[in-house]
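Page 37, continued from 36.
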């Protein structure tokens, strides 16, 4: 009987561990308002991370929708200055997390500030990779938050919803021997021109190959590697109504690269299916705006790669 009981307890422990969700969720008392997104940004940039963007969203929410549900709603993106290089050199698709999202939000009638980030296991699931380098980045990011906010409560979100669709949407354009530099310029010009008609904005762009090559001093496996931060205000506004923790996915990082040993340009982004699954989005309005964004973005990429 004792063996049976021990086995059941062990099995329940395993199930409990497996049932953990996809997001790190921090909450800390911020009634005074002294903990700001800028303070959080500086904690990251002083401890091994580089800044992507720090985008305050209440202004845009109020301007476009005439209201906001939050005292604080900021989309912060960062990437580890050293480990991210190792990651993208090993896994080309890892550029969709360079930079990665850190959601920061506090409800209008709330004293608690929240921070959301993806777990290393979730990023590995999306990339189809192992967790070795991702765990190093995660450890460094968690250390930043824990050191800055030692009194914060740290939880893992509820188990994600099942999702069978591809978690990274990716397209390729064969160069057929054409000069890659000319094709890169034309490709990215068409990509950027495609954003505005569908309501996408591009708050930042990064030539990541400059960091991989240390401005030309070391070799890189890529002829070029660029990342775009892409945001659609209507999406994050509507999703935040019920699942503000999904801000860990925003803005979406889109990768565009060409490997030196390949005759093609690859473009891709984390599909909205990640939002639906990891943040457990079941609200119809939020679901609909996400699926429209997926359809619109795919139409842009199909158009420029055909």
């Amino acid at each position: 009987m004792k063996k049976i009981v021990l086995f059941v307890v062990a099995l329940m422990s395993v199930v409990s561990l497996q049932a953990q969700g996809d997001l790190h969720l921090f909450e800390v008392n911020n009634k005074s308002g002294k903990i700001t997104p800028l303070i959080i940004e500086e904690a990251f940039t002083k401890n091994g991370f580089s800044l992507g963007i720090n985008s305050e969203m209440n202004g845009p929410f109020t301007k476009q929708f005439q209201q906001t549900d939050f005292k604080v709603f900021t989309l912060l993106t960062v990437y580890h200055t050293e480990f991210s290089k190792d990651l993208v050199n090993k896994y080309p698709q890892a550029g969709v997390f360079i930079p990665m999202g850190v959601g920061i939000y506090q409800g209008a009638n709330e004293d608690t500030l929240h921070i959301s980030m993806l777990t290393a296991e979730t990023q590995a699931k999306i990339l189809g990779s192992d967790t070795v380098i991702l765990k190093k980045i995660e450890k460094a990011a968690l250390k930043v938050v824990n050191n800055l906010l030692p009194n914060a409560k740290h939880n893992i979100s509820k188990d994600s919803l099942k999702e069978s669709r591809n978690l990274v949407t990716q397209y390729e354009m064969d160069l057929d021997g054409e000069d890659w530099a000319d094709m890169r310029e034309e490709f990215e010009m068409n990509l950027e021109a495609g954003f505005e008609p569908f309501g996408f904005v591009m708050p930042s762009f990064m030539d990541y190959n400059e960091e991989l090559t240390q401005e030309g001093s070391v070799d890189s496996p890529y002829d070029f590697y660029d990342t775009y931060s892409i945001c659609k205000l209507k999406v994050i506004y509507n999703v935040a109504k019920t699942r503000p923790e999904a801000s860990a996915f925003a803005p979406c990082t889109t990768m565009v690269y060409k490997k030196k040993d390949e005759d093609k340009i690859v473009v891709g982004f984390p599909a909205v299916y990640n939002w639906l699954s990891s943040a457990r989005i079941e609200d119809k309005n939020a679901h609909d705006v996400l699926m429209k964004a997926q359809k619109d973005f795919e139409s842009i990429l199909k158009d420029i790669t055909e």
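The longest helix spans residues 284-305. Flag for discussion at group meeting. Confidence is low (pLDDT under 50) at residues 1-18.
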